[in-house]
Write a structure and sequence with these properties.
alpha/beta, six-stranded mixed beta sheet, three-stranded mixed beta sheet
């Protein structure tokens, strides 16, 4: 099992690393005023809120091609498919924006952090550019939900660090769903705009968790000996209060078209581990939900972070959006 230590890197350093990589990773930087560089660009859908979604890793990659090429049609199709698997959680009452970007391939995550960061920094340069284009060209004054999973969650946290120290923009943030990635006290201290969620309907906050079996002591996203912040998506508590599986509104196993292949109400309960801060599930047999990727050991349910809690997350997006608009109406009164 590979363990990587996470550090807080200044945004300026991330940008410099990306510039180093520009000539050899994934081709030229995309132009996000071109609709071809968006998996979803819902400019005309009537809605009062927007979702800016960053796709998880779908590209394999290797040492010669560590970052996805923007003209890789096969990976672009997987990009849309992976986005569709989670889109239904977010877009009932919102426009949906999802850029293609030169994401780091799975190969990158087998490298030590010091060596993989240049490829992740390049991916972030694209995400940053696409978000800036969204703000300049498409967003207007709409409130924003940031959302991503795995690498996409990492990219969303970087966006919050880079953009949402601006008070006017921070006031537009409904929430950031950065699921399947680590968020540390060190980062929150360094970037006050990273506000961990404390309940079911607070706004302008980060929602994150990493799901695993009680016996797991380390993973790629939360290495052994490290601690992450989390909120339990079943009871929306950040303390050690366990949530029974009766609170699970429905695990949904989705496909690349966005359809639900199977739905299992009350699949599992969960509690937050007091030492790791990870989300431990109480009613899952690891043999039934294998990790599928060599990067993860048995009992690391990274690929199921969204799936196990799909209906709870869907309901929560609606609750936080309603709370945001209710607060805005009170402020205007």
């Amino acid at each position: 099992m590979l363990h990587f230590k996470k550090t807080v890197l200044p945004i300026a350093l991330l940008s410099a690393l990306a510039l180093i990589c520009l000539s050899g990773c994934g081709g030229d930087a995309p132009d996000y005023t071109d609709a071809e560089n968006w998996a979803y660009l819902e400019q005309t859908k009537p809605a009062d809120a927007d979702v800016f979604f960053v796709c998880p890793t779908v590209y394999g990659g290797d040492e010669a091609s560590p970052n996805m090429a923007m003209d890789d049609d096969e990976t672009r199709a997987s990009f849309v498919g992976a986005t569709n698997m989670e889109k239904g959680i977010y877009d009932a009452d919102a426009r949906f924006f999802a850029p293609y970007y030169r994401q780091a391939g799975l190969w990158v995550y087998s490298q030590p952090e010091a060596e993989r960061e240049e490829y992740l920094a390049l991916a972030y340069e694209d995400v940053k550019a696409s978000f800036q284009t969204y703000l300049d060209e498409y967003g207007g004054d709409n409130p924003i939900i940031l959302a991503g999973f795995s690498q996409g969650a990492d990219m969303c946290l970087r966006l919050v660090k880079d953009f949402f120290g601006n008070e006017a923009l921070a006031d537009r943030l409904i929430a950031c769903y950065a699921i399947g990635w680590q968020l540390t006290e060190e980062e929150v201290s360094a970037y006050p705009q990273l506000k961990p969620a404390g309940g079911e309907d607070d706004t302008g906050v980060i929602i994150t968790f990493n799901t695993e079996d009680p016996g797991v002591t380390g993973s790629l996203t939360v290495p052994e000996g490290e601690t992450t912040l989390a909120i339990n998506p079943l009871n929306w508590k950040t303390d050690l209060t366990p949530a029974d599986k009766s609170l699970n509104l429905g695990a949904c196993f989705t496909n690349y078209e966005g359809g639900i292949d199977s739905e299992i109400p009350q699949l599992t309960g969960a509690y937050i581990d007091p030492d790791r801060g990870t989300l431990k599930v109480t009613d899952i047999d690891p043999a039934d939900y294998p990790p599928s990727l060599d990067l993860f050991e048995d009992g690391v349910y990274h690929l199921y972070d969204y799936q196990f809690f799909y209906k709870n997350l869907q309901q929560n997006v609606s609750a936080r959006t309603d709370a945001y608009f209710s607060s805005a109406a009170d402020d205007a009164a």
